[in-house]
């Protein structure tokens, strides 16, 4: 360390440590968030060069205006039936989250993560992608599975690590793997799935396939090297992939400033890589759908990757192990300027005469009943902590395709151990 | 236990002679020809054919979408390979030097190695990561390391190290055909010829070694099988890669009745072949180039004691690199060469 006093003519250096606009006990503040009018963002042709629409990485693609009307060039012009199905999938996702959150609080499982406030992203994207496009999700995209028709009982079996869990109780709750629904095994190590999605997309291109890949990570984990590896590889090989960044403002207790959000947008990561970048209102199901459909068309026609930042808000805790009252303003959720995704799509359908309060209430009741019935069925397979649902020997299965001698030896040791313990 | 399985093809009348690089190149050539899902990628492996020439000619033969250069990004190389494996390809990524593999560790340990288990077999990672390792070429501390023990510590990874051209090809084919991730470390000091450990003597080319007779076609050397390269009764020496040849030359020079075992695969380990030998000889010397503390020798030593304690007539001895970075100018003082091995043999044979 040099002696600071030896250069009295220079100002001392200062380290900038980001601080969110509001902490507990303070009024929520979203003055830093610019919300442009819906319909304002231009929609480039799907074969436009990324350099021709760099501005879209700094704006915000929005379709639903404050009155619930769909406006502007990004309106995907979906049929009312499609919109009602999307609304139902979002409501079902929320009902599922409510039920599983409560199950965790009742001690039926160890852990749960809700996606409240972010339902439009996974659900509308699942509707915009082809059913066999491959998804490499993070941990808050349960809406993909629900929209693709994964049985709720199967999801719950996994959450309970019970005898019906096809992952054999090996994974933390919500870390699903559903190959039949094009849903890659979720990893707890963040952003690892992003280069994997690029690799899957490269493989699809190598094979002359028509399927594309999509990856999801949070704004916080864009700081991981894996994210930047993925961007580089996707750009170099023009991989048919959509890289989704779900910017829900918070990575556990760290606000987006700790991922670089003070300096620029997350969509702007695309600009440096020379790939297509969009910044989208993540609470606007129509904008989410339209952006995904556009990016999918680019990927499918060999126009390369698209990085989409979905601007949204994590309305609840990070997980059942987290308490946001310890680090963020209590009224942030209420003050969030982009509203609630379900309420906004509902308003749109009502505005266009395709929906009403009665039908919405009935749908909510249906969703709650469907989830309740699934839960009842799943619990017949057991809940976590009540008995051992997997035979002990399964611990040693699947480490390798064929179990080698040292693992067989350890399996014998475990059996002896259980015997000695009288279990 | 120690037999290699040779297909009929391999017994063709004229067997070409290859050095280790040519044998490795031939393994990839054979596999790319047989399986359209095999792809080769890595830094400089495409048009140029690799800094050690291991992929020479493959891009010209199989095209740019099956053999291609990658960004200098090991995390991305392994991560992309995992995704390709999930699609159904059989990627063979090259990490240019084992010293560069560390940025890819999370993708190897938490992803490739765990994918089969965590998805209950829905997704697998049939990847073979090739990487030149070890010193003795004046590579300095970032082109000389032997990180094999790190990988043997990871549940779900296999670690393979050949010591001859014949084994290199057969093991690499078996590794590529394996449905689990395999780390395939190539001892670069012996790419062009076996090494006696006497750095001041001329290098012998592989062409004078019987294991340079490498069949042109497909054959496998099964993973998980050690090979007794020299039978003996007085002492068991466990080695792999370059050190097999160094140990052999010391044994021959000293006229010791040692049984030298080339492990070939560190995980899964052929402990039965090792234990049978130590039971017979009563003495066990372990030789590796990697640093000593928590090196693979520690694991070998523990397993030998667990199984052969009552047959041992002397403590298990380890000859290894020192627990320092690989020093550029002092390379030959670091390398566990003939002097260190000779002294250890004296010690273990004393009583």
Task: Write structural notes for this entry.
The complex is a heterodimer of chains A (423) and B (351). Chain A is α/β, with parallel strands linked by helices and 423 residues long. Chain A contains twelve helices and seven strands. Chain A has two domains: 32-319 and 331-379, Rossmann fold, CATH 3.40.50.970; 391-423. In chain A, the strands form two sheets. A five-stranded parallel sheet of chain A has the order 1-2-3-7-6, with helices on both faces. A two-stranded antiparallel ribbon of chain A has the order 4-5. In chain A, helix 8 links the parallel strand 6 and strand 7 (306-311). The mean pLDDT of chain A is 97. Chain B folds into two domains: 16-212, Thiamin diphosphate (ThDP)-binding fold, Pyr/PP domains (Rossmann fold), CATH 3.40.50.970; 227-349, Rossmann fold. Chain B is built from twelve helices and twelve strands. Chain B has helices at residues 20-34, 58-62, 74-87, 105-112, 115-118, 148-152, 165-177, 242-254, 271-281, 296-308, 331-334, 338-349, and strands at residues 38-42, 67-69, 90-94, 128-133, 158-160, 182-187, 227-230, 235-239, 258-262, 265-267, 284-291, 317-321. Chain B has a five-stranded mixed sheet, sandwiched between helices. Chains A and B meet through helix 5 and helix 6 of A and helix 3, helix 4 and helix 5 of B.
Q: Topology of this protein?
A:
The complex is a heterodimer of chains A (423) and B (351).
Chain A lengths: L79 H26 L13 H10 L5 E3 L5 H6 L4 H9 L32 H14 L6 E6 L6 H12 L4 E7 L2 E2 L2 E2 L13 H5 L2 E6 L3 H16 L5 E6 L20 H4 L5 H11 L5 H23 L25 H16 L3
Parallel strand pairs in A: 1-2, 2-3, 3-7, 6-7
Antiparallel strand pairs in A: 4-5
Helix pairs in contact in A: 1-2, 1-10, 1-11, 2-8, 4-11, 5-6
Chain B lengths: L19 H15 L3 E5 L15 H5 L4 E3 L4 H14 L2 E5 L10 H8 L2 H4 L9 E6 L14 H5 L5 E3 L4 H13 L4 E6 L39 E4 L4 E5 L2 H13 L3 E5 L2 E3 L3 H11 L2 E8 L4 H13 L8 E5 L9 H4 L3 H12 L2
Parallel strand pairs in B: 1-2, 1-3, 4-6, 5-6, 8-9, 8-11, 11-12
Antiparallel strand pairs in B: 5-10, 7-9
Helix pairs in contact in B: 1-7, 3-4, 9-10
């Amino acid at each position: 360390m040099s002696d600071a006093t030896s250069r009295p003519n220079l100002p001392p250096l200062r380290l900038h440590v980001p601080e969110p606009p509001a902490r507990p006990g303070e009024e929520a503040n979203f003055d830093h968030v610019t919300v442009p009018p819906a319909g304002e963002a231009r929609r480039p042709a799907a074969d436009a060069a990324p350099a021709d629409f760099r501005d879209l990485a700094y704006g915000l693609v929005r379709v639903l205006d404050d009155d619930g009307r769909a406006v502007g060039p990004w309106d995907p012009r979906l049929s009312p039936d499609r919109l009602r199905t999307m609304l139902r999938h979002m409501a079902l996702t929320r009902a599922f989250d409510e039920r599983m959150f409560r199950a965790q609080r009742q001690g039926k499982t160890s852990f749960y993560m809700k996606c409240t406030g972010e339902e439009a992203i996974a659900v509308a994207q699942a509707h915009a992608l082809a059913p066999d496009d491959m998804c490499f999700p993070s941990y808050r995209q349960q809406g993909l599975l629900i929209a693709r028709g994964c049985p709720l009982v199967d999801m719950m079996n996994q959450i309970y690590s019970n005898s019906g869990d096809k992952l054999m109780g090996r994974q933390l709750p919500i870390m699903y793997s559903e190959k039949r629904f094009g849903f890659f095994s979720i990893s707890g190590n963040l952003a690892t799935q992003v280069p994997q999605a690029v690799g899957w997309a490269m493989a699809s291109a190598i094979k002359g396939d028509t399927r594309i890949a999509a990856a999801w990570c949070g704004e916080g984990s864009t700081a991981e090297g894996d994210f930047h590896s993925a961007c580089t590889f996707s750009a170099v090989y023009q991989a048919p992939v959509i890289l989704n960044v779900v910017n829900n403002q918070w990575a556990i207790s760290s606000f987006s400033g700790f991922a670089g959000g003070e300096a620029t947008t997350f969509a702007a990561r695309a600009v440096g890589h020379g790939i297509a970048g969009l910044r989208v209102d993540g609470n606007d199901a129509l904008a989410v759908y339209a952006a995904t459909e556009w990016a999918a068309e680019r990927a499918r026609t060999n126009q390369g990757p698209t990085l989409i930042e979905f601007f949204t808000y994590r309305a609840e805790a990070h997980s059942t192990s987290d308490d946001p009252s310890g680090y963020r303003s209590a009224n942030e959720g209420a003050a969030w300027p982009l509203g609630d995704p379900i309420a906004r799509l509902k308003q749109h359908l009502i505005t266009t005469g395709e929906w009403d309060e009665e039908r919405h209430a009935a749908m909510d009741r249906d969703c709650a009943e469907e989830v309740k019935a699934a839960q009842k069925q799943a619990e017949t397979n057991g809940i976590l902590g009540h008995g051992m649902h997997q035979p002990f020997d399964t611990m040693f299965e699947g480490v390798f395709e064929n179990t080698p001698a040292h693992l067989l030896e350890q399996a014998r040791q475990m059996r002896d151990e259980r015997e000695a313990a009288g279990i | 236990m120690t037999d290699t399985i040779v297909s009929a093809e391999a017994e063709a009348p004229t067997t070409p002679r290859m050095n280790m690089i040519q044998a490795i190149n031939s393994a990839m050539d054979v596999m790319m020809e047989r399986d359209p899902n095999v792809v080769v990628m890595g830094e400089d492996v495409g048009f140029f054919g690799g800094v050690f020439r291991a992929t020479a000619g493959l891009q010209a033969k199989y095209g740019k979408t099956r053999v291609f250069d990658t960004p200098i990004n090991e995390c991305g190389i392994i991560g992309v390979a995992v995704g390709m494996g999930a699609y159904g390809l059989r990627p063979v990524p090259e990490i240019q030097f084992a010293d560069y593999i560390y940025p890819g560790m999370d993708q190897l340990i938490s992803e490739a190695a765990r994918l089969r288990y965590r998805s209950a077999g829905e997704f697998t990672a049939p990847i073979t990561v090739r990487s030149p390792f070890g010193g003795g070429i004046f590579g300095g501390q970032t082109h000389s390391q032997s990180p094999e023990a790190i990988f043997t510590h990871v549940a779900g990874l296999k670690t393979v190290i050949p010591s001859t051209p014949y084994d290199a090809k057969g093991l690499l084919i078996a590794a590529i055909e394996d449905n689990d991730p395999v780390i395939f470390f190539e001892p670069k000091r012996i790419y062009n010829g076996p090494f006696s450990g006497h750095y001041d003597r001329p290098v012998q080319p592989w062409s004078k070694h019987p294991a340079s007779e490498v069949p042109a076609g497909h054959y496998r050397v099964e993973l998980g099988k050690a090979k007794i390269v020299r039978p003996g009764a007085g002492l068991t020496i466990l080695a792999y890669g370059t050190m097999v040849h160094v140990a052999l030359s010391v044994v021959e020079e000293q006229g010791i009745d040692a049984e030298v075992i080339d492990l070939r695969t560190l995980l899964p380990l052929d402990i039965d072949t090792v234990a049978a030998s130590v039971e017979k000889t009563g003495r066990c010397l372990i030789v590796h180039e990697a640093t000593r503390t928590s090196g693979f020798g520690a694991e070998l030593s523990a397993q030998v004691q667990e199984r052969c304690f009552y047959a041992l007539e002397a403590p298990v001895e380890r000859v290894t690199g020192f627990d320092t970075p690989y020093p550029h100018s002092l390379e030959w003082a670091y390398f566990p060469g003939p002097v260190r091995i000779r002294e250890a043999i004296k010690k273990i044979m004393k009583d």
